[in-house]
Write a structure and sequence with these properties.
The chain is of the alpha/beta class. The chain is 50% helix and 14% strand. Strands 2-5-8-1-9 form a 5-stranded parallel sheet, with helices on both faces. Helix 1 crosses helix 2 and helix 10 packs across helix 11. The radius of gyration is 24 Å and the shape is elongated. 32% of the residues are buried.
Length: 291
């Protein structure tokens, strides 16, 4: 892609709307071959960006979902021990006694199970999504930093495997903890904030073209009002889309205060938030949008 505007256009063709800052960040990540570190609250479009990039580039999306305790064998590669054992038994039954030959056969690439990181190194082109890196521990961060610096991995039994062309890498963080500076310095950085009203409305209309314009506008206004409350988990764009889709499924062309309260479970996921939200004057918010 020749520039940020072309990146923006290609992403918008997939249904993903970007602002100037994100279009520039994506262009630089593609042009410089640098990972893009996306940080922000859950539901603001970080993971969806990786999917949109994969679609725009016509490349497979390879996702690594991080969690507490994740290690290299879960993220990089493992050996298919059941198949190795079957091969060993078959070799013994055939009378093979050469130990060196057996060992070399057991650790052949046909028995190698590629996890997301190795799969991304071996797939050209590809988009690698390292999702919620803030859930992993320090040791995994250090391992990931080393891999992203060289785009290669050494497997003792096979040697060094290096990517012919580095994958496009998107890392996301919900900022449940601070990710170390060393990893961030390796990446380009973009903070995902909740979008302004007009842009969020455009996203909802793009993602849910069958929803009435009136309903989309009202739901977006209500979500912005909810974010102004002191909530444990402010709703993201994903929840705005979910709420509008739920109301549309109920056959609503527009929403009133009673229906909004009845369907809060589509947008708020904590009991405390739902209780606090019931103190919001939904009717006043809707009236301000010309209800």
């Amino acid at each position: 892609m020749d520039g940020p505007e072309q990146v923006r256009a290609r992403l918008e063709e997939t249904g993903y709307l970007v602002d100037d800052g994100l279009a520039i960040a994506c262009f630089l990540a593609l042009r410089l071959g640098r990972p893009l570190f996306c940080e922000g609250d859950a539901g603001v479009g970080k993971t969806a960006l990786a999917s949109a990039l994969a679609e725009a580039l016509d490349a497979p999306l390879i996702r690594l979902q991080c969690h507490e305790g994740i290690d290299a064998s879960q993220a990089l590669y493992d050996w298919d021990f059941p198949r190795q054992l079957l091969h060993l038994r078959a070799a013994e039954a055939a009378g093979v006694t050469d130990a060196d030959r057996l060992e070399s056969e057991l650790y052949d690439r046909r028995f190698l199970v590629a996890r997301p990181l190795l799969k991304a190194l071996q797939t050209q082109p590809s988009v690698l999504l390292v999702d919620e890196i803030d859930r992993a521990d320090d040791e995994f961060e250090a391992f990931l930093l080393e891999l992203l610096s060289e785009y290669s991995v050494t497997i003792p039994e096979l040697g060094t495997l290096r990517a012919e062309a580095p994958p496009v890498v998107v890392l996301t963080s919900n900022r449940t903890r601070e990710v170390h500076d060393a990893l961030k310095r390796r990446c380009l950085y973009h903070w995902f904030d909740h979008p302004a009203f007009a842009r969020e409305l455009a996203i909802v209309r793009r993602r849910l073209p069958g929803v009435s314009a009136r309903l989309a506008e009202q739901v977006t206004a209500l979500v912005h009002a909810l974010r102004a409350q002191d909530l444990l988990k402010p709703p993201g764009v994903a929840e705005t889309i979910d709420w509008a889709e739920a109301l549309d499924t109920l056959g609503a062309g527009e929403v009133d205060a009673e229906l909004a309260v009845a369907t809060l479970g589509s947008v708020l996921k904590y009991r405390e938030d739902a209780e606090r939200a019931r103190g919001l004057d939904f009717a006043a918010v809707l009236a301000a949008r010309g209800a």
